[in-house]
Write a structure and sequence with these properties.
Blueprint lengths: L12 E3 L12 H9 L2 E4 L2 H10 L7 E3 L5 H13 L4 E4 L12 H9 L4 E3 L6 H7 L8 E5 L4 H13 L4 E5 L4 H12 L3 E6 L7 E6 H4 L11 E5 L10 H13 L4 H12 L3 H16 L1
Parallel strand pairs: 1-4, 1-5, 2-3, 2-4, 6-7
Antiparallel strand pairs: 7-10, 8-9, 8-10
């Protein structure tokens, strides 16, 4: 990379979301940025050219920037920014650097003290989550699951134990296999599949993993956003049942040490809590 000229400010790196289907889902600010920057780096130049022409954007220069060339493009793009010129990065659809190329470029820009400006806008993630019926606040986003067995297993374990809903992306040719895999791991947990979001055939498929893993149940067309319900809470001890068991143990004259072990095993409560309950019952009886 060339050295930055003394006192010369770097250009801005803009991360510009683009529509995920409906061409109207682009912000005025995004159009303004795309029309003003000296260079646009696009995941697919044909798709981006179509979008820009649709909105009448007379762009200055457009080059490809995707997962197969993103490392090779880094020096070129950073040099462009260091020369004081602005750069906009766009993906095929949605927000750059979110399960799409650009995260490597962002890291490199930060390392060079180059301003990174992320515009809000279109993404498949939030519409799928909010319309799923499974959203209760916090959630875990995992993007596309790894294909290698070791890494995939680690992600699947996260899904199994997550106390929050999980959001995944999946390709149409792998969606049925994923449903079967999740059903074997999670049982009959609730799930919502969102496909073709903002497009003519937008669809939300809701049900259990057992239902949606049936052959032919899912029309495997379009990119999928998969929203999985959170892990079920462990059965909480019933207070009334615990009280009854404490009373019975005391009536049987079982020692407090043995009664504590029985109470822990029967209810799942901790030793200190079991001991305290038995001790309180003993004190009540002696009053």
């Amino acid at each position: 990379m060339t050295a930055r000229k003394e006192n010369q400010a770097a250009g801005n790196l803009y991360l510009v979301p683009v529509p995920i289907g409906n061409l109207g889902d682009i912000t005025l600010r995004a159009l303004e940025v795309l029309s003003s920057v000296e260079l646009i780096a696009a995941e697919d130049t044909r798709t981006t050219s179509f979008l820009l022409n649709h909105h009448g954007i007379a762009y200055q220069e457009l080059i490809s920037y995707h997962k197969f060339n993103e490392r090779a493009r880094i020096n070129l793009l950073i040099d462009h920014l260091r020369s004081g010129k602005d750069l906009a990065v766009v993906s095929d659809a949605g927000t750059p650097a979110l399960s799409d190329p650009a995260s490597i470029l962002v890291d490199a820009a930060i390392e060079e003290d180059i301003p990174v400006i992320a515009l809000p806008g279109a993404s498949a993630l939030l519409p799928a989550l909010t319309a799923s019926g499974l959203n209760d606040g916090p959630f875990l986003f995992l993007g596309f699951l790894p294909t290698k067995a070791k890494h995939r297993s680690q992600f699947l374990n996260q899904i199994k134990a997550s106390p929050h809903p999980i959001v995944l992306y999946e390709a149409p040719h792998r969606i049925e296999k994923l449903m079967c895999e999740l059903q074997q791991l999670l049982g009959d947990r609730k799930v919502c599949l969102a496909r073709e979001i903002t497009k003519l055939h937008e669809e939300y498929i809701r049900g259990t993993l057992t239902e949606l893993s049936e052959p032919g149940r899912i029309k495997a067309k379009g990119e999928f956003v998969v929203v999985i319900d959170k892990a079920p809470e462990a059965n909480q001890p019933n207070t009334q049942q615990i009280e009854q068991l404490v009373t019975l143990l005391k009536q049987e004259g079982i020692s407090i040490s043995s009664a504590t072990k029985i109470l822990m095993q029967a209810t799942g409560i901790k030793r200190n809590q079991a001991y305290r309950l038995l001790l309180d019952k003993e004190e009540e009886a002696s009053e």
